[in-house]
Here is the input.
Amino acid sequence: MKKLYIIMLSTFLFGCATVTKPVSLAPSFWENRQQSVGVAVTKSNHPEAFMTGNMGLLDIIINKGNAKNLIAHLEKLELPRLQQVSADFATQLQARGFNVKKIDQPIDPESMSKFSGQSSETIQYSQLDYRKYKEQGIDRLLVISVDRVGTTRNYYGFIPTNPPQANLLIKGQLIDLNTNQLLWFTTVTNNSPIPEPWDQAPTFENVTLSVNNNVEQGVEKFEQSFFSGPVQ
Here is the structure.
């Protein structure tokens, strides 16, 4: 009964959620180099061992208990490539002649107001209202969000159906601060297998290497999805 309740609740929540479609960056963006671009990141959690599948509450407790060593390792894992993403974007934009301002304080999405504008087939808006950042002398705001990083594993109840995989989900949006319109929006998911043996507590060498390599691959795809303008 608990499993059925969780499935029904998840279906309701995700079914009602607003889905933002990908938005390609128009070539005209690269032609106006007088615009000021802010680069920001959202608050992100530490790397985690994500669990998916058909699980009840007791199953989740058991699975987390069985994975406690991996969870503890991931929580302490440092991922320097992820920490460098916003600086890379700022550097590449500056190399293309843009005036760039780095937003030092991470944005907390939970503290942001919802945007009331309605997206259409031709125009999409960010779900959160970022227009207040225009007060900082910024015309466009690039927001980078790491929604998931670490490992992912599927379960049926308390039985794992596959080995864990390295996992990254990173999202980017470029917002016109005059209107809150999305000029660019993309989500990159990158998963890769972890070589056996993966259960190498407490150091988890193969997990650490795979998560870092997966981040490197995912970030490369993410940056390529944005940068198409020529370097001066």
About this structure: The chain has a mean pLDDT of 90.
